[in-house]
TrEMBL record:
<feature type="binding site">
    <location>
        <position position="65"/>
    </location>
    <ligand>
        <name>Zn(2+)</name>
    </ligand>
</feature>
<feature type="binding site">
    <location>
        <position position="211"/>
    </location>
    <ligand>
        <name>Zn(2+)</name>
    </ligand>
</feature>
<dbReference type="InterPro" id="IPR032466">
    <property type="entry name" value="Metal_Hydrolase"/>
</dbReference>
<feature type="binding site">
    <location>
        <position position="184"/>
    </location>
    <ligand>
        <name>substrate</name>
    </ligand>
</feature>
<dbReference type="InterPro" id="IPR023512">
    <property type="entry name" value="Deaminase_MtaD/DadD"/>
</dbReference>
<feature type="binding site">
    <location>
        <position position="154"/>
    </location>
    <ligand>
        <name>substrate</name>
    </ligand>
</feature>
<dbReference type="InterPro" id="IPR011059">
    <property type="entry name" value="Metal-dep_hydrolase_composite"/>
</dbReference>
<dbReference type="GO" id="GO:0004000">
    <property type="term" value="F:adenosine deaminase activity"/>
</dbReference>
<feature type="domain" description="Amidohydrolase-related">
    <location>
        <begin position="54"/>
        <end position="404"/>
    </location>
</feature>
<protein>
    <recommendedName>
        <fullName>5'-deoxyadenosine deaminase</fullName>
        <ecNumber>3.5.4.41</ecNumber>
        <ecNumber>3.5.4.31</ecNumber>
        <ecNumber>3.5.4.4</ecNumber>
        <ecNumber>3.5.4.28</ecNumber>
    </recommendedName>
</protein>
<feature type="binding site">
    <location>
        <position position="214"/>
    </location>
    <ligand>
        <name>substrate</name>
    </ligand>
</feature>
<feature type="binding site">
    <location>
        <position position="299"/>
    </location>
    <ligand>
        <name>Zn(2+)</name>
    </ligand>
</feature>
<feature type="binding site">
    <location>
        <position position="299"/>
    </location>
    <ligand>
        <name>substrate</name>
    </ligand>
</feature>
<dbReference type="GO" id="GO:0090613">
    <property type="term" value="F:5'-deoxyadenosine deaminase activity"/>
</dbReference>
<keyword id="KW-0479">Metal-binding</keyword>
<comment type="subunit">
    <text>Homotetramer.</text>
</comment>
<comment type="similarity">
    <text>Belongs to the metallo-dependent hydrolases superfamily. MTA/SAH deaminase family.</text>
</comment>
Length: 433
């Protein structure tokens, strides 16, 4: 028996839809079954009238650490080096699976409320994060953050942990969870670890999620240690490929942009985190000009300090305009693709999500334009979403054909209970320091 939802009168934001005419969309179970001007309302289980609402694919966040939502506002106004070494890593030493579960649920509430249906995560206690994903009804690519600092024994244990996560969680939650490898970065993961990850990624057909070239210090340390910049080093050891999602990519030479292009590495741009930690400005418009796949991420809520992908896209666009002094770069249309089809491509999910097409998964959001910051309508739907809206204009969120929020009310998660538990968790973690 099919579960059917009809969404009618929606302004569908497909980048080939220039007419802005209202359409209907039918969901059958987890899939988009039909898109047409009118669809028969008889025999559908539920009708959503999307009058005045923009319909677009559920947004895709390609780099975050969801459980770190617990650490929001914990350590502000610091460089990456001091933020990680003096504040975050000491706090993370006392984490456990229950804390990571509640932190991930708190993050999931924020994702659902601001229109993100898929996120790619790198963190610890990932089986507990998987549990949160299952309970929240969202979609995720999960990786365990492997750090060995050159210690061979630790390397084996870290790889085993990520492989175990693959074996226990890949395909879990009706296929909503996919598992990647997560070597943290070229400065925390040894060459041996990175080489082993490459071998195993090929063997198991798994993607790889890694931080690369985030700060100038990382470049200088890499040059001091190896005489090579990070991407030169990663190419030399045979690590790079189209299955690698590299977060940040702020400090890139022209030669490294060539390397990224040659290996079809996917870039996850995280402008708010890069601005807040004063890491720098990634050369995104140059990457796009070079036809490199650039998607968008928030990084963790501890360095952002929220998970609002619409706000992130506006920041990305404005930052490129101001850094190149060219208002034509990173348009609202390009920004939308970063959080939709480019995000899907980065995660190897382009046949399932990232656009509104019959046969794709029903990951859909509705944005209500009847709001002070969205009236009158802009000249294009993408302009209204990117430049005028923010996450709080998201009205309805559907993932895998299931309604997770309708009329701004969560339908699956109990947000107050989650807020209370998250406040208790961070209080305990602060007391343990
Ligand atoms: C998984 C580990 O990664 C840490 N982390 C979170 N954000 C960043 C970042 O921007 N650069 C490097 N490392 C980061 C997180 O705290 C975990 O320890
Ligand atoms: Zn990160």
């Amino acid at each position: 028996m099919n579960n059917t939802i009809l969404i009618k009168n929606a302004l569908i934001l497909n980048l080939n839809n220039f007419e802005n005419k209202k359409q209907s969309l039918l969901i059958k179970d987890d899939l988009i079954a039909e898109i047409a001007e009118t669809i028969d309302e008889g025999n559908v289980d539920k009708i959503i009238d999307a009058e005045g609402k923009i319909l677009l694919p559920g947004l895709i966040n390609t780099h975050t650490h969801l459980s770190m939502t617990l650490f929001r506002g914990l350590a502000d106004d610091l460089s990456l080096d001091s933020w990680l070494n003096d504040h975050i890593w000491p706090m993370e030493a006392n984490l456990n699976g229950d804390y990571c579960y509640i932190g991930a649920l708190l993050g999931a509430v924020e994702l659902i409320k601001s229109g993100t249906t898929t996120f790619s995560d790198m963190y610890f206690y990932m089986e507990d994060v998987a549990r949160a994903v299952e309970d929240a009804g969202i979609r995720a690519v999960l990786s365990y953050g492997m750090i060995d600092f050159g210690d061979a024994e630790r390397r084996e244990a870290e790889i085993e942990e990520n492989l175990q996560l693959f074996k226990s969680c890949n395909g879990m939650a009706d296929g909503r969870i996919k598992v990647f490898f997560g070597p943290h970065s070229p400065y925390t993961a040894s060459e041996d670890l990175l080489i082993k990850v490459r071998e195993l990624a090929d063997e198991y057909n798994m993607g790889i999620h890694i931080h690369v070239s985030e700060t100038e210090k990382e470049i200088n340390d890499s040059l001091d240690e190896r005489g090579l910049r990070p991407f030169e080093y990663l190419e030399k050891i045979g690590f790079l490929g189209p299955d690698v999602v590299a977060a940040h990519c702020v400090w890139l030479s022209d030669e490294e942009i060539e390397i990224i292009k040659k290996h079809d590495v996917k870039v996850s741009h995280n402008p708010c985190s890069n601005m807040k930690l004063a890491s720098g400005i990634a050369p995104v418009s140059k990457l796009i000009e070079n036809d490199i796949c650039v998607s968008i991420g928030t990084d963790g809520a501890s360095s952002n300090n929220n998970l609002d992908l619409i706000e992130e896209l506006k920041t990305a666009s404005l930052l490129q305009k101001v850094s190149t002094l060219d208002p034509k770069v990173l348009t609202s249309d390009e920004a939308i693709t970063m959080a939709t089809i480019k995000g899907a491509e980065a995660l190897g999910l382009e046949n399932e999500i990232g656009s509104i097409e019959v046969g794709k998964k029903a990951d859909i959001i509705l944005i209500d334009t009847n709001s002070a910051n969205m009236v009158p309508d802009s000249s294009s739907l993408s302009s209204n979403v990117i430049y005028s809206a923010n996450g709080s204009n998201v009205d309805t969120t559907i993932c895998n054909g299931k309604i997770l929020m309708e009329n701004k009310k969560l339908t699956v998660l109990d947000e107050q209970e989650i807020y209370d538990k998250a406040r208790k968790a961070i209080k305990e973690l602060k007391e343990a320091i």
